[in-house]
């Protein structure tokens, strides 16, 4: 169970998250929707530990620990995965090397055995073909020269290989056409399991047709202002976010 | 493309250095040479208080103990310091209270130079009358300063420095020599001893100076050294834009110009300093021409202070100047935009120093050099980051355009980073005029000179755009004249 | 206007007055006189120990032990050949000079694998290397430098590339108390192709100074330079790259890049990429950047579980490896790659 309690996060001088409280049980998919500037990405960065997004107040409980006490790599070892809205290019570091280094670092942190090169290659081949990714692309430097869709699929591939338990998808649908959206969504759905909690952050309802949420929450002006079932997403689609702005203000 | 047409028209209408005329004005000179008595003579002529004379004499002692620098890559006939006149002024009684009192002959000279000294047109509300205040300096003295009263109404002090020493001694004393100390370099020491006149500007807190301020220097008397001293102080939150222009007649002998400009910017203040330098470059054989050794420095003392230097250098036989910024304040910012054009036998060694001391300070340098004829142009710059200056950003772009195979263009940047969080970026390129583009322009009807002017203006465009409007037109004309005869 | 040909000061270890101080422009950032005031005592004989890093590449060898040649000092290449050039030092507080000469005849293709292997402490090693590349010859010089933290190591290389010759140089160094390599190259143009690359990785209080002067005397020559460096702790990296194009040397294409990462709060980088151009029909450019690791890339790696130190190391290696990847010979490239990764 992910328990976020009274989370306050400022970016620079500006308060963004202002007392956000949210519970996401393992096995469930929760959507976070909201107007731009509400703090959706900030939530993802705060949960994953990005510098500059430290919590001024509040706690985040996951896997028996307060995540806020851990550095980003330690949080990853505890199963936290943030799928970036704009995945980073890393010149000079082949994608395969990157993922294997990450996987083994996590395993070491958990006291598990590392994965050998041949085993890892087999894993990658299986996962990449399921995502219809060209294996040769993975020998190139990570994300360098990849299209938007390829970068997003690379994120999902990493998810499949790193096997996280708390998945935070930050606007995974941005920049994707219908086909790419479908493939990415299938990849995400394939990872659903009773041990995994998923936070799907999105501005548009469309993604939720493919990744069906158990609950939908509205994040406005730094807080959760409304929660409901999947139909809440359709309501937002029809009415927009206006009615939540004065409430939150 | 209005700018282009303007360039073409301007080029067509111009002859060679049109400011080269000499004027017969009754002039009073100090005895030739330099010694403590000459300094007393100058100080006395200007009616200076005792402390100012002491300051000058101390500077003179310092200068005697220093050696002239030889490291710059320019070659010039050494200056015989004892053979110059260090004071020359048009004969007159006291300073003119108004324009009516200025010698009409002087006014005529400035009119011929195209410098608007008339307040009437503006005050009478005439449309299109150029509205900027001018301090006109003729040889060693300021002849007149326009718009003084109007500026004084908002608290802006704009007057010749000789007047400021008498009327605002506390201000002058507080800041003079605080940015360029007497011992800073050989020419600064000399200037501190014998400086003639220049402008003093003080902008009070929160005031945005209502008009551009400018000083126009005209060297007229022969065999004189020109040593102007300018001091600009922008108090907290103040803003001013300052233009410096200068010309000199054509003469056979070289003339020495060793100026010092100090700028102080306090918290949130901003100063824009623009120079269009059009000294006489020497004749076709390289004889004569101005030796231009200038120390210009801005002390960005306050947090978020900003100083930008914009210069168009087209004249002088030998140029040695590095307008610099000491970025002391946090988040202070320094900018340097330069166009250096050399032709004939000119030599230029110019650039900037950006000294980053304050956290998160930033600097931006764009230098364009155009070399033609047998000239030689060097960009010499320094970007340095002090160990305690975190978060520094710099971007530098130096581009050289060579016209013809007999000139030289060099780039010597020094980049010294002593703090790990600095991000410094420097790029330099060298190219020539494209034959294809030249032919294309000519095929469309432009003469070769017009085509060259067109391409060069394109090359320097992003710096040209930084100039205040009043200067931009003159600068474009200058670019064209300076490059006459450079191709073919 | 003729070009000003400033020659480098000629150092003579027996003559302390020849040691440049920071007042000499080209030694501005490497004040030799500060660390070396008197002529050092001559180094004793040393024995050549284990084989060097390039042993497996075979070929011929020129070896110096404490400045004394073990065998020949000159080498002439006529065909496809490999020459290992080893400057071995095992000395304490003494100094020595070594001089070697390499000539590549027309049609020769020489792989010159040079190492500076130092043991002991506080010594002064001065090496001179003279290289002639004839028309139609090709020389690739790969240099690995590893010396004690308190040693002084100075190498002067004089290269003459005849019209149509090819010269490639890659220097990988870990610095020393004062470590300086000065490459002075005369470029004959007319299709001659020159590459001078460098890579430095410095820790503690080490210093390195990679200085080069490429003088284009002939037309239609090509020069490409890439130097990348990382400085940590209180180390200091210096790069001085000068490209001169003489009057009449039209058609030259010369590019230079220097990029440094400063990973220590008190580390320092000084760079002076210089252009001296007297011909107008040329293409010249240089770029210089000083910065640090990309913060967003660092966070991305950490979010995937890679601890911060490992992430830094990966990014640093990725940054530097570009220079190694420019080495064409695969076997040499691999030797250099593992030599470097062992020392990162």
What labels describe this entry?
heterotrimer, A: 249 residues, alpha/beta, Rossmann fold, 6-stranded mixed β-sheet, 4-stranded antiparallel β-sheet, 9 helices, C: 344 residues, mainly beta, 10-stranded mixed β-sheet, 9-stranded parallel β-sheet, 4 helices, globular
User: How would the global form of chain C be characterised?
Assistant: globular
Q: Tell me roughly what share of residues is in helical segments of chain C.
A: 10-25%
Give the helices and strands of chain C as they follow along the chain: HEEEEEEEEEEEEEEEEEEEHHH
Into how many domains do the coordinates of chain C divide? 1
Sheet/helix structural class of chain B: alpha/beta
Q: What's the story with the biggest beta sheet of chain B?
A: 10 strands, mixed
Biggest sheet character of chain C:
10 strands, mixed
The amount of beta strand of chain B, in percent, is: 25-35%
Q: Strand percentage of chain C, roughly? A: over 45%
Low-confidence stretches of chain B: 1-16, 120-127
**What strand order characterises the main sheet of chain B?**
4-3-7-10-12-14-17-20-22-24
Helical stretch tally of chain C = 4
Pairing-aware structural class of the strands and helices of chain C? mainly beta
Structural domains of chain B: how many: 1
Binned, the helix content of chain B reads: 10-25%
- The dominant shape of chain B is globular
Low-confidence stretches of chain C: 1-5
Number of strands of chain B: 24
User: Strand tally of chain C, please?
Assistant: 19
Strand order of the largest sheet of chain C: 3-2-5-7-9-11-13-15-17-19
Layout of helices and strands:
The complex is a heterotrimer of chains A (249), B (488) and C (344).
Chain A: E1 2-11, E2 14-24, E3 29-33, H1 40-48, E4 55-62, E5 65-66, H2 72-77, E6 80-83, H3 95-109, H4 117-130, H5 148-162, E7 166-170, H6 178-189, E8 197-201, H7 207-210, E9 215-220, E10 223-228, H8 231-239, H9 244-248
Parallel strand pairs in A: 3-8, 3-9, 6-7, 7-8
Antiparallel strand pairs in A: 1-2, 1-4, 4-5, 9-10
Chain B: H1 2-13, E1 27-29, H2 36-45, H3 50-64, E2 88-90, H4 104-113, H5 120-123, E3 132-138, E4 141-145, H6 148-153, E5 157-160, H7 161-167, H8 169-175, H9 186-194, E6 199-203, E7 212-218, E8 225-226, E9 229-234, E10 239-247, E11 254-265, E12 270-277, E13 289-300, E14 306-313, E15 318-321, E16 324-327, E17 333-342, E18 347-350, E19 353-356, E20 362-371, E21 376-385, E22 393-402, E23 408-417, E24 423-432, H10 435-443, H11 448-464, H12 469-482
Parallel strand pairs in B: 3-7, 6-9, 7-10, 8-11, 9-11, 10-12, 11-13, 12-14, 13-15, 13-16, 14-17, 15-18, 16-19, 17-20, 18-21, 19-21, 20-22, 21-23, 22-24
Antiparallel strand pairs in B: 1-2, 3-4, 5-6
Chain C: H1 32-35, E1 41-42, E2 60-65, E3 68-69, E4 74-77, E5 80-92, E6 94-104, E7 109-121, E8 124-133, E9 138-146, E10 152-161, E11 166-173, E12 178-187, E13 193-202, E14 207-216, E15 222-231, E16 236-245, E17 253-262, E18 268-277, E19 283-291, H2 295-303, H3 308-325, H4 330-342
Parallel strand pairs in C: 1-6, 2-5, 4-6, 5-7, 6-8, 7-9, 8-10, 9-11, 10-12, 11-13, 12-14, 13-15, 14-16, 15-17, 16-18, 17-19
Antiparallel strand pairs in C: 2-3
């Amino acid at each position: 169970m992910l328990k976020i309690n009274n989370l306050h996060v400022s970016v620079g001088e500006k308060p963004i998250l202002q007392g956000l409280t949210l519970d996401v049980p393992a096995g469930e998919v929760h959507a976070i929707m909201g107007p731009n500037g509400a703090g959706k990405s900030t939530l993802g960065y705060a949960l994953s530990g990005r510098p500059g997004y430290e919590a001024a107040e509040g706690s985040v409980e996951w896997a028996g620990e307060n995540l806020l006490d851990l550095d980003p790599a330690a949080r990853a070892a505890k199963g936290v995965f943030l799928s970036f809205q704009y995945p980073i290019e890393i010149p000079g570091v082949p994608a395969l090397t990157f993922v294997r280094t990450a996987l083994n670092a996590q395993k070491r942190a958990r006291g598990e055995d590392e994965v050998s090169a041949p085993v890892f290659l087999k894993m990658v081949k299986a996962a990449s073909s399921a995502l219809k990714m060209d294996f040769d692309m993975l020998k190139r430097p990570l994300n360098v020269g990849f299209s938007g869709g390829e970068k997003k699929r690379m994120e999902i591939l990493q998810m499949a290989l790193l096997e996280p338990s708390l998945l935070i998808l930050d606007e995974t649908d941005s920049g994707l056409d219908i086909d790419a959206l479908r493939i990415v969504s299938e990849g995400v759905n394939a990872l659903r399991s009773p041990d995994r909690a998923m936070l799907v952050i999105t501005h548009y309802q469309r993604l939720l047709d493919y990744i069906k949420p158990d609950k939908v929450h509205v994040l406005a002006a730094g807080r959760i202002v409304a929660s409901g079932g999947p139909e809440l997403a359709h309501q937002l689609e029809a009415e927009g976010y206006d009615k939540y702005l004065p409430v939150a203000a | 493309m209005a700018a282009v047409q303007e360039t073409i028209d301007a080029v067509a209408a111009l002859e060679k250095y049109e400011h080269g005329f000499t004027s017969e004005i009754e002039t009073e000179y100090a005895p030739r040479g330099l010694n403590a008595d000459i300094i007393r003579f100058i100080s006395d002529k200007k009616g200076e208080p005792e402390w100012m004379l002491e300051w000058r004499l101390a500077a003179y002692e310092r200068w005697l103990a220093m050696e002239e620098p030889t490291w710059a890559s320019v070659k010039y006939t050494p200056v015989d310091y004892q053979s110059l006149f260090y004071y020359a002024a048009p004969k007159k009684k006291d300073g003119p209270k108004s324009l009516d009192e200025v010698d009409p002959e002087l006014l005529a000279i400035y009119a011929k130079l195209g410098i608007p000294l008339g307040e009437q047109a503006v005050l009478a509300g005439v449309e299109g009358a150029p509205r900027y205040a001018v301090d006109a300096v003729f040889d060693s003295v300021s002849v007149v300063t326009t718009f003084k009263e109007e500026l004084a109404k908002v608290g802006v002090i704009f007057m010749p420095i000789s007047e400021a020493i008498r009327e605002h001694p506390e201000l002058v004393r507080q800041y003079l020599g605080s940015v360029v100390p007497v011992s800073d370099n050989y020419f600064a020491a000399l200037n501190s001893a014998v400086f003639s006149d220049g402008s003093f500007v003080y902008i009070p807190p929160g005031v945005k100076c209502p008009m551009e301020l400018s000083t126009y220097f005209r060297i007229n008397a022969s065999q004189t050294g020109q040593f102007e001293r300018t001091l600009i102080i922008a108090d907290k939150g103040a803003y001013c834009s300052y233009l410096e222009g200068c010309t000199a007649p054509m003469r056979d002998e070289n003339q020495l110009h060793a100026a010092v400009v100090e700028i102080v910017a306090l918290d949130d203040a901003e100063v824009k300093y623009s120079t269009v330098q059009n000294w006489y470059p020497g004749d076709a054989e390289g004889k004569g021409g101005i030796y231009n050794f200038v120390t210009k420095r801005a002390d960005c003392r306050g947090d978020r202070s900003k100083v930008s230097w914009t210069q168009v250098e087209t004249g002088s036989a030998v140029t040695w100047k590095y307008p610099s910024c000491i970025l002391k304040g946090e988040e202070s910012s320094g900018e340097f935009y330069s166009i250096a054009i050399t032709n004939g036998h000119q030599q230029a060694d110019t650039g900037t120093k950006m000294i980053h001391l304050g956290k998160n300070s930033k600097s931006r340098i764009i230098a364009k050099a155009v070399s033609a004829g047998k000239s030689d142009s060097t960009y010499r710059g320094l970007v340095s980051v002090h160990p305690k200056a975190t978060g520094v950003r710099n971007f530098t772009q130096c581009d050289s355009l060579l016209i013809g195979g007999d000139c030289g263009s060099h780039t010597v940047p020094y980049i010294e980073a002593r703090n790990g969080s600095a991000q410094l970026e420097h790029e330099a390129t060298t190219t020539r005029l494209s034959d294809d583009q030249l032919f294309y322009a000519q095929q469309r009807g432009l003469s070769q000179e017009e085509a060259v002017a067109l391409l060069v203006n394109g090359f320097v465009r992003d710096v040209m755009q930084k100039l205040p409007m009043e200067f931009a037109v003159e600068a474009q004309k200058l670019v064209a004249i300076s490059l006459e005869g450079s191709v073919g | 206007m003729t070009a000003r040909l400033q020659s480098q000061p000629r150092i003579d270890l027996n003559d302390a007055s020849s040691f440049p101080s920071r007042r000499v422009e080209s030694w501005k950032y490497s004040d030799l006189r500060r660390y070396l005031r008197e002529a050092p005592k001559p180094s004793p004989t040393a024995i050549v120990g284990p084989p060097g890093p390039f042993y497996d590449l075979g070929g011929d060898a020129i070896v110096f032990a404490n400045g004394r040649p073990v065998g020949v000092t000159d080498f002439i290449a006529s065909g496809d050949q490999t020459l290992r050039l080893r400057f071995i030092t095992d000395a304490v507080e003494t100094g020595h000079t070594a001089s070697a000469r390499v000539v590549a005849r027309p049609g020769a293709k020489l792989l010159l694998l040079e190492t500076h292997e130092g043991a002991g402490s506080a010594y002064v090693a001065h090496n001179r290397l003279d290289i002639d590349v004839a028309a139609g010859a090709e020389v690739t010089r790969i240099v690995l430098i590893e010396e004690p933290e308190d040693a002084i190591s100075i190498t002067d290389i004089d290269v003459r590339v005849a019209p149509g010759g090819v010269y490639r140089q890659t220097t990988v160094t870990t610095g020393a108390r004062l470590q300086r390599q000065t490459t002075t190259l005369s470029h004959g143009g007319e299709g001659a192709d020159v590459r001078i690359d460098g890579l430095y990785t410095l820790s503690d209080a080490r210093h390195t100074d990679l200085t080069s002067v490429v003088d284009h005397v002939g037309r239609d020559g090509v020069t490409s330079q890439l130097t990348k460096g990382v400085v940590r702790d209180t180390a200091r990296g210096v790069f001085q790259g000068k490209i001169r194009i003489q009057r009449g040397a039209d058609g030259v294409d010369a590019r230079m890049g220097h990029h440094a990462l400063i990973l220590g709060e008190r580390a320092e980088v000084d760079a002076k990429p210089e252009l001296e151009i007297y011909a107008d029909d040329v293409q010249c450019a240089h770029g210089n950047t000083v910065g640090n690791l990309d913060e967003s890339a660092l966070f991305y790696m950490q979010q995937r579980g890679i601890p911060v130190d490992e992430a830094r190391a990966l990014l640093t290696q990725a940054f530097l490896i570009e220079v190694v990847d420019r080495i064409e010979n695969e076997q040499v490239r691999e030797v250099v790659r593992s030599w470097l990764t062992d020392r990162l």
